[in-house]
Amino acid sequence: MADKNNINKIDKLGKHQIVGYIRVSSLDQNTERQLDGVTLDRVFIDKITGSTKNRPQLNAMLDYVRFGDTVIVHSLDRLARNLEDLLDIIKQLNDKGVIFQSLKENVKFDGSSPSAMDKLILHIFGAIAEFNRSLIREAQKEGIAKAKQRGAYKGRKPALNKTQVKELKDIIESKNNSIENYKELTLPKIADQFGVSLPTINRYIKKIKEKKTKG
């Protein structure tokens, strides 16, 4: 485990901040013990399952930190529950020049001055993540093939049903009716309204436009 006393000696002359991120999966879990003994300038706490990407305090932390700041977590699984999300978060921190440190695993990635070892470890993590994705895709293909043989495969369920597609059409028409609506009805807001990703909304809008052009 990393020496917490050394962490507390990091430059704190107002130039950089030491920021803690804590996640607990239920409201009754103790949040204090995760970073107990570490002096922090700011703490962001999510009381929510790590499997969801909708973590308000994580997003707030990513927006808050600046070049030279240090983000500290108790363990890597507090930051993310799978390797792909972990890499994405660390990359966001590195791109901002932020130092990331996990106490339990004793790992540190210095985004303000990345070393060759940091880059190597991230590349290894990335290779493992891609390998995991390949295994998942292969398992999905095999599962679909077996389901087709049994006559049980019905294809992927549409992200939006017919009623929602009609509602989306109305929203897009309203969006294009005025400059105010165009600014207010942003695509991310529309995606959130339907509970789907931005690429999914863009795909449906493209289909709607293509049908309108053909019709």
Q: What's the CATH H-level homologous superfamily of the largest domain?
A: Resolvase, N-terminal catalytic domain
- Total helical segments: 9
Give the uncertain stretches in residue-range form. Answer: 1-13
Radius of gyration: 22 Å
Chain-wise SSE layout:
Elements: H1 4-8, E1 18-24, E2 42-47, H2 56-64, E3 70-73, H3 76-79, H4 83-95, E4 99-102, E5 107-110, H5 116-150, H6 162-175, H7 179-184, H8 187-194, H9 198-214
Parallel strand pairs: 1-2, 1-3, 3-4
Antiparallel strand pairs: 4-5
Explain how this protein is built.
The model is unreliable at 1-13 (pLDDT under 50). This protein is of the alpha/beta class. The chain is built from nine helices and five strands. The protein has helices spanning 4-8, 56-64, 76-79, 83-95, 116-150, 162-175, 179-184, 187-194, 198-214, and strands at 18-24, 42-47, 70-73, 99-102, 107-110. A five-stranded mixed beta sheet has the order 2-1-3-4-5.
Give a quick summary of the entry.
This protein has 215 residues and is an alpha/beta fold. Helix content is 52%, strand content 12%.
What key attributes describe this structure?
disordered N terminus; globular; 215 residues; alpha/beta; Rossmann fold; 12% strand; 5-stranded mixed beta sheet
